[in-house]
Design a protein that fits this description.
Elements lengths: L17 E6 L2 H14 L11 E7 L4 H11 L6 E9 L4 E6 L1 H13 L6 H4 L5 E5 L4 H11 L7 E3 L2 E8 L2 E9 L3
Antiparallel strand pairs: 1-2, 1-7, 3-4, 3-6, 4-5, 7-8
Length: 180
């Protein structure tokens, strides 16, 4: 998930928050990552393209979280669709529609009730951020360029990713593939 050349220390930080992602298929990941490399400010772009489900779960829930994700991953791979441009003010994202993934997110949130940050408690808006922390005019220009060119693309998520957030980099913990 981290960009090439970014190195984490060998020891995992004990209090690093956990992130959960919905794993993209290789073709969608490559396409979205190309957009991200082209439009995300290079000095800030430390990660590959991704779809974040949860931004900061407490590390103490890791065993239960892995169990919950493993159980949910028995299902079929959730269908999704590229749904257009999402405006982020100082950035741009690719909006994704996936009622199945939204339902899985709700089930995870129910199990983690009381442990979610404000950001993770909000309604889920699936997206891939391809530009962030730029001047609003630059974001609007990219959005105007992308909107007429984006086409609905249907795909299926591959699984869940679990990462530890360490000083802006993500330490991979586990990838859990859908098996249904």
């Amino acid at each position: 998930m981290n960009r090439e050349g970014e190195v984490l220390p060998p020891e995992r930080k004990p209090n690093a928050p956990l992130l959960v992602t919905a794993e993209l298929p290789a073709d969608v990941l490559d396409w979205a990552d190309g957009l991200r490399r082209a439009h995300y400010p290079a000095e800030r772009n430390r990660l590959r393209a991704h779809v974040t489900l949860f931004h900061a779960l407490p590390p103490r829930v890791e065993p239960e979280l892995l169990q919950v994700l493993g159980t949910l991953a028995r299902a079929s791979r959730p269908q999704a669709q590229i749904a257009g441009v999402m405006k982020l003010g100082g950035g741009t994202a690719i909006a994704i529609e996936s009622p199945e993934m939204v339902e899985l997110h709700a089930q995870i949130a129910e199990r983690m009730y009381g442990l979610l940050t404000d950001q993770d408690s909000r309604p889920l808006r699936l997206h891939i951020t391809i530009q962030n922390k730029v001047e609003p005019a630059a974001a609007r220009a990219l959005q105007a360029d992308l909107e007429p060119r984006l086409r609905p693309v249907t795909f299926r998520f591959r699984g869940f990713g679990v990462h530890a957030w360490e000083d802006g980099l993500w330490r991979p913990i586990r990838s859990i593939a859908f098996r249904g």
